[in-house]
Design goal:
With 308 residues, this protein is α/β, with parallel strands linked by helices. The protein has nine helices and eleven strands.
Length: 308
Amino acid sequence: MPSRPTSMKAPSFSSRSYWDDRFTGDQITFEWLLSVGDTINIIKGVGLNRSVDEQGARNDSEPRILHIGCGTSDLSLRLRELTRWPAQVHNVDFSEAAIEHGRMKELQAFSADAASTNAVGSRDSGVSGPTSTEVVEERSWMQWSTVDLLSLPSVQSLVGDDGGLYDLIIDKSTSDAIACGENITIMSSWTQPDGPDPISMHPVDLLALHLAAVTAPDGRWIVISYSEDRFPFLEREDEQGHDGAEDSLLQVDSRRGFGPGRFWNLERKAQITVPATEEAVVGGTPGQTVHWPEIYHWLYVLIRTKDP
């Protein structure tokens, strides 16, 4: 009698070790949910209006882009075309292997462009301030960092010495991976002004708070997700929230104006139809096919409030 198949444990998408193992063993390009081209079109459609003036000229200081969970996606390389200087793009990931992979891909793809830019850097009339070759070299490459998005000090380290905040956050299913983790207990003074108190938070709520700390007022957090309900804190009323009594303190905080909903407004939520790519042949008979049902992903555009 054949043995029963053993059940497979779901991947630990919230674990650093999972991503290190994955990206160390397999560094081929992989795109989550949507193609790079489709993602770039979405970003251009909803995220760049703050960085172009009425005459269509791009502001040299915007947008500063934070690409979270960059993985081995080619999206990182395409983001360069949305800014005046590649250094305005900051790619981050939980896995150091993914960051090293991305940095090397950029070097291989753009070394010739960087050399050409450096050769004429001091003659670029669009460069404000010092125009030495060293400054041009520094701006010619994107930034790459290994970051734990659920650690506030780690996230705050992304803000440079100039204190500049990000205008755009690009999140291609990173919130989905983080949502797979368990609730996180933090020490907070929100409910106890006289001293810190432990609060259990859903990891996506904590992510929202941390990203708020490095996003400029009116900045956008563009999220492509497989979930129709990825950010319940944006929509819940006082009686709503994540399941479980351990979220009760977070709900109290939200009513008092200190939850993640204080720092983010939902500008847009839209369904994205995934292009059909395959047909299944019925019984191996040519000409007889069955069409897959339509699959949908979700686009969220969150706007950073002006609350500090």
